[in-house]
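FAQ: What does a ligand-bound record look like?

Like this one, built around iron/sulfur cluster:
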Amino acid sequence: MTKVAIIRCEKNENTCPMTACFQCITEHKEGFERYSECILTGVFTCRCPGINAIDLAKILKSKGVEAIHFCTCAFARKTEKGWRIQNGGFCGHADTILEDIHKETELPCVKGTAHLPKYYTLKVWEHVN
Ligand code: SF4
Ligand code: SF4
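The answer part, i.e. the structure of the complex:
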């Protein structure tokens, strides 16, 4: 059972209650399909410009979290044709934030949670043994 956490973006914390994110964890779908079993172990909110994310990730790790996911809306946008990566999401530097979190915590960092954009291959920062 992999203990997962989500870091969401402050830019929609008052508009989305993360329903699809939680549903995907429960059903092991989309960004969580990579786990045979997983359980939500924490949620934090990133604040611009994102420098708090490393501290949040360290706290999550101290609570036993084994993988950190960044919300899909941070890097993709909902369109009439579904979620798309073109034109980005709320955050212009999600990759940098995730790379920094991975370097500091050594936890696997996953770019995506729910409704992954069409043609998107899940991006993961993790050690390869
Ligand atoms: S990824 Fe989707 S469900 Fe999760 S916080 Fe963003 S908009 Fe809400
Ligand atoms: S740094 Fe990016 S993910 Fe973090 S709050 Fe700002 S826009 Fe959202």
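Follow-up question: can I read anything off the structure? Yes, for example: The longest helix spans residues 94-105.
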